[in-house]
Write a structure and sequence with these properties.
five-stranded mixed β-sheet, alpha/beta, 59% helix, Nucleotidyltransferase, domain 5
């Protein structure tokens, strides 16, 4: 499974592509940051983020996109920018038919470090170790994007398999019900045909 992790933000939007499967060490494919100038109109900043996200998806062909779930902070302006960038990421992925998963910061930290309260330094250190990188990914937004992708590969892969299994069971049950209905309909038709002959 190849996952594009997006750490949303207006000034810096972290991007990280990771490939792997649950229970195996993942591999980094790409990492980077989309930067937009603070003095640019918000709408134009969002267009830049959208265009770069499109390029990343075309170039790296992820199977899914993992976006950090926006949570309430005291700085409303920061939350608004983060939410707007997050929305753009989800729209770009949906337009391409890619599944989108939202992971909370504590969920990502727990997946990567074992603690939902880990600091940014710990997350960056563990991302560097897990992906066996020669250098620490910087800035923190890039490391966070890789952490999101790792989290989804490890957790999302298991979840999607469970959903697939549940879907397969549901399909089998629906098929069995349809076959039963068909058999009943055939029996009724046969009975009606015999009664018509009498």
């Amino acid at each position: 499974m190849r996952v594009l992790g997006v750490d949303p933000g207006l000034t810096r939007c972290g991007l990280g592509v990771v490939e792997g499967s649950p229970g195996r060490p993942p591999k980094m494919i790409a990492v980077g940051v989309i930067r937009t100038p603070a003095d640019l109109d918000v709408a134009k900043r969002l267009v830049r983020i959208e265009a770069e996200l499109e390029e990343w998806i075309v170039e790296h062909r992820p199977d899914a996109v993992a976006v950090e779930r926006v949570f309430a902070q005291q700085n409303v302006r920061t939350v608004m920018g983060t939410a707007q960038a997050s929305g753009v990421a989800m729209v770009v992925a949906a337009r391409r038919g890619l599944p989108v998963a939202l992971h909370t910061p504590s969920e990502v930290k727990a997946a990567v470090t074992g603690s939902g309260r880990a600091g940014k330094e710990q997350v960056t250190t563990m991302v560097t170790r897990i992906l066996k990188l020669a250098e620490r990914p910087t800035p923190a937004d890039a490391a966070d994007a890789l952490a999101l992708a790792i989290c989804h590969v490890w957790r999302g892969g298991v979840t999607s398999r469970l959903e697939e299994a549940a879907g397969s069971r549901a399909n089998l049950e629906a098929l069995a019900q349809a076959q039963s209905r068909l058999q009943v309909a055939r029996l009724r038709a046969a009975v009606a045909a015999q009664e018509g002959r009498r």
